[in-house]
Amino acid sequence: MKLAFLISTGKDARHLTSLINSLPEDATYYVLVDSKRSLLHFKRSLFRENVNFISHRVNVVDGSIREVEAQVELLRAALTDGADYMVFLSGQDYPLWSNDRIVKCFNKADGHEFLTGVAMPGQGRAAYPYTDLQPLSGKPWRTFSAKGQMRISLRRLINGLHIHKTLRIHCPEKTYTLYKGSSSWAITPDLAELVVKMWDENKRFVNYFRTSYRPVETFVPTVAFNSDLASRCDLVKGRYPGTDALNQLTYIDGKTAKILTEVDFAELKVVDKMFCRKVVSKYSDGLVSMIDAVRRVK
Question: Is 246 within 8 Å of 117 (Cβ atoms)?
């Protein structure tokens, strides 16, 4: 079993080193560092043959298509590696399972995609944010700058005019249904190739997500569940189950992903997820020590 871990990061170089050092030594690592940050700062402790800092840099803007671009470029780089699974992580994630348990889980998966999704049409209030048009979301403008305030005013105007996005994406070749999933997943090369192909070749499909709410949680699931690979994914039928139910790999505490500390350890012991987020150097050092002690005996 060959694993490739894809990591998008723009903060906390110290934790990035801890994260990679905590995971299987024989895995391959692909790292995209936000173009706003110094690459050397993140590289200095990670000069290893199996750690690859990809050359395609992205100015990652939270909540925008730029997060999807980071995912796609990491997939593109990893597809040359021959990995059986590509596991996408944030630079502030940390494993809760032992490496032996992680590898065994993927060994038993037999090509199943670690991706959960739910169709958004018919979801009522849960779908409202996904009908909002969010123009210029990929621009790296500060909220209180003149351009940032202009963007907010434009969105208010559009909302006031009752102009909304549909929950289906109409392309010449077919109509795609919007699916919501998670920003964390582990997928096979089959699905990775399809995601990259959609990004490169289906501009109308990609453009839909340029004005979408949190496309990092919808782009890959929408590609997957509208494809022949849907049966290899986990479909939630019926009503929207909530964010946590869609995130099968990673524990995130609340919508704002608060920084995890020692007080969260009891909860982490019972959630039975492979990773947790948001782990930050200094603030989370005590928690990491507690997690490591448990991982060593499992």
Answer: yes
Structure tokens at 110: 């037999």
Average pLDDT estimate for 9-37: 95
Structure tokens at 183: 């920003």
For residue 251, the SS3 value is: strand
Tell the burial category of 21 from Cβ atoms under 10 Å away from its Cβ (0-12, 13-18, 19+): exposed
Mean pLDDT of 287-298: 89
| Burial category of 290 from C-beta neighbours within 10 Å (exposed 0-12, middle 13-18, buried 19 and up) | middle
Confidence of residue 298 (pLDDT cuts 50, 70, 90): low
Model confidence over 97-150: pLDDT tens digits?
Answer: 999 999 999 999 999 999 999 999 999 999 999 999 898 888 888 888 888 888
pLDDT given at position 255 = 62
State the pLDDT at residue 144: 85
Nearest to 211 by CA among 149, 146, 159: 159
Q: Which residue has the tokens 């992903």?
A: 257
Return the residue matching tokens 């040359």.
Answer: 80
Nearest in space to 207 (alpha carbons), one of 158, 155, 171, 180: 171
Decide: pTM greater than 0.85.
yes
Element spanning 87, H or E: strand 85-90
* Cα Rg of the chain (Å, integer): 19
